[in-house]
Amino acid sequence: MNPANRYKQELSKFLEISPDGIKLYWKGRVALYALLKAIGVERDDEVIIPAFTCVVVPNAVLYLHAKPVYVDIDPVTYNPDQKSIERAITDKTKVIICQNTFGLSTNVDEVVRMAKSKGIKTIEDCTHGFGGNYQGRPNGSYCDAAFYSTQWNKPFSTGIGGFAAVNNPDILEKLEKVNLQLVEPNFREQMSLKAQLFARQHLLTSGNYWRMLRLYRMLSNYNLVIGSSSGGEVSGTAMPSRYFLNQSSVQIEAGLDNIKNLNDLLRLRKRNAEMYSEYLLGNEKTHVPEQLFDNHSFLKYPLIVGNRRDFEQHAEAEQIALGDWFNSPLHPVESDLNPWGMNRNHFPNADSIAAKIVNLPTDIDNPEMVIAFLKKHLDLIE
Ligand SMILES: *Cc1c(COP(=O)(O)O)cnc(C)c1O
Fold first, then answer.
1. Quick one: which atom of ligand 1 is closest to the CA of 149?
2. CB count, 10 Å around CB of 290?
3. Looking at the DSSP assignment, which residues form a beta bridge with residue 99?
4. Is 71 helix (H, G, I), strand (E, B) or coil?
């Protein structure tokens, strides 16, 4: 079996579909774009999106000249609830995107049922939730299709990368036609990714994390790292050149290697998240409630703080590796969101959470150190 098929087979073990329903792409956003195209999303169609996501999601909609319609989130689940989604539906709604933010799926079964009754297609944004379950079924199995990311910070990594898993046979057939337009990554693109994967594997150990972080920031300032987004993708809504790229063999190799550890990693993340929830609950702070745990994948653990700047400074001084998802309703855009058709004032939950959220690391061996840190700065936590 060739490596691409072996990789699809490994991925399919975490999903409920055959390897043939899985398609590989250069990035997760490219998989989303391909799915929207396969569904036939075009000018003036509306696509419902959570008002708390990564900017590359509305970008994929805008590249097709369709309209993202945002829905505010529920502050407990970090996802829109079924009723708010239903209110946003018009006769132009073509697709609803359900997201499992930080791994949490919310009412995806109800949303899918409602969408089906109205002839609307559903796509699950599983970029955080690969490997997790919702009510006994794997994330990504409820909707017509799902897309996943294997970027650095996602459930397991191929540097950058992504894939789609398609449950609806009509969409799969159309997707195969859309994929004929995919462009192969060129030598330079593959080599720079390979160099970064190598650096990550050989230079970045937990002992020098902070030194590497400083180095990375310095290089970024001089534009010497190939980030996961090109500048244009976070500053505007025009499609960048060389966007619709196929997955490369470099990524497939890395994927086959890294997916091996995923089950252990999922267990570790869940255990750490349970410890954080227990501690926060015991101190009457905002936490992910136990009834939402199910088999949540806990890519990150969300924490709400009163003064983020102070909290982040303490964390850096005490070497706690905090995450910054999502510091904007359309992460990581800090400026005006009008180009994406969003007015923050209309989404008060997403806007206030984006201003106050940090993420605790879940893939670490010493959660006690994080909890000691929380204890010391309890007054900054809401
Ligand atoms: C990371 C992310 C994406 C995009 O994934 P890429 O592989 O970087 O394109 C989409 N949606 C959300 C919610 C994400 O966090």
1. 7
2. 11
3. 125
4. strand
For residue range 205-234, list pLDDT tens digits in order: 666 677 777 777 766 665 555 556 777 888
Give the containing element (helix H, strand E) for 35.
Answer: helix 28-39
Q: Of 102, 93, 101, 122, which is closest to residue 110 (Cα–Cα)?
A: 122
Is the distance from CB of 338 to CB of 370 less than 8 angstroms?
no
| Tokens representing residue 41 in the block | 């999303």
- Identify any residues that bridge with 171 across adjacent strands, giving them in sequence order: none
Least confident of 30-34, 167-171, 295-299: 295-299
**Which helix (H) or strand (E) segment is 138 a member of?**
strand 137-138
Containing 252, the helix (H) or strand (E) segment is helix 249-258
- Ligand 1 close to Cβ of residue 233 (< 6 A): no
For the beta carbon of residue 215, count every other beta carbon within 10 angstroms. Answer: 15
> Residue 358: pLDDT above 70?
yes
- Whether 360 lines ligand 1, by a CB cut-off of 6 Å, is no
CA distance 370 to 228: 28
Ligand 1 center to 4 CA (angstroms): 21
Stated as kind and residue range, the H or E segment containing 84 is helix 82-87
Residue corresponding to tokens 């999903």: 15
Atom of ligand 1 nearest to the CA of 101: 13
